[in-house]
Amino acid sequence: KAGVTQTPRYLIKTRGQQVTLSCSPISGHRSVSWYQQTPGQGLQFLFEYFSETQRNKGNFPGRFSGRQFSNSRSEMNVSTLELGDSALYLCASSLAGQNYNEQFFGPGTRLTVL
Amino acid sequence: DQQVKQNSPSLSVQEGRISILNCDYTNSMFDYFLWYKKYPAEGPTFLISISSIKDKNEDGRFTVFLNKSAKHLSLHIVPSQPGDSAVYFCAASARNYGQNFVFGPGTRLSVLP
After folding, report:
1. Per-residue CA distances from A41 to A63, B31, B58, B102, B107 (Å)
2. CB A49 within 8 A of CB A31
3. Candidate from B9, B101, B106 with C-beta closest to A103
4. What are B77-103's pLDDT values in tens digits?
5. Do the Cβ atoms of A103 and B103 come within 8 Å?
6. Angle at Cα A57 formed by Cα A56 and Cα A63, nearest 5°?
């Protein structure tokens, strides 16, 4: 079974630009979560999508948005990029449902904002 | 305010000895905990989990202990191997949070040959 894939793996943008990151979950997984990882901060939860609906949201400004398609693939968008948005963005998929399920992470997209 | 804390940013252990990674949490609503391992340039990999109805869960060389009254959990790796060198993240969730896991900042484990 193919794992979680994220594209692109690396991205360099300048302040003020916008960026779109893509995540393809493991086949059959309906929940996709996004995290931001910065040095010393661990993984900060951005949002979770399930059945094309945002089900949970972390404490990030409205510049961070996402969506999920009918095939469970998800995209994350960051508008008006700031230097502090430089981070590793990780996507994780899980079976979801009523019980807890471990999340399976992709390799991440390394975003550098200059 | 960090709800999940890993107070040791790094830990060095000799090969063959026990590694003990600690994690503390503040939210008493958390009832499910996981440990992830992360190598450079890769996403975190699920290692082991524990529900709040248990105080211990074992999987091969990895054992997680949960002390609910102290809001503390620990991951024991025995014996430690050089391939265990990675960053370890503790994560917690509550039933109302769905798939929203709160992660700690991570502990970098180095297992020395």
Report:
1. 20, 22, 28, 11, 11
2. yes
3. B101
4. 999 999 999 999 999 988 766 667 889
5. no
6. 145
